[in-house]
Design brief:
The chain is α+β, with helices and mostly antiparallel strands. The protein is 57% helix and 18% strand. The protein has a 3-stranded mixed beta sheet with strand order 1-2-3, covered by helices on one side. Helix 1 crosses helix 3.
Length: 122
Amino acid sequence: MSRMDKVNNQIKREISIIIQQELSDPRMMFISITNVDVSPDLNNAKVYFSVLGEGQSVADAQKSLNGARGAIRRSVSRRMSIRHTPELNFVHDRSLTYGSEIEETLKEIYDDQEKNSTDNQA
């Protein structure tokens, strides 16, 4: 595992803990940090999150995370021993939603094939 992978994983772990234990915003209750991608110069980090629900839930989560960005960054800085704590940029991770959509499509295709197979046997 490279140094950058370790930094990404540590920041992901710390932000997850901070959101669950230190912040009292109820809009953050169902937020999960899915990935962190820190730039090689450690100046910026894209923090990918998912949230239960879509639409307004995502907007509320994004607003809450952006509002708490400074506090989260300070907490990460206190918890980690890195020279420079990157600026945090929160990005909604659509991969889980996208995966669910693909799974649903595949299920529909399978169900259609089953139905056609049953109809052809009758």
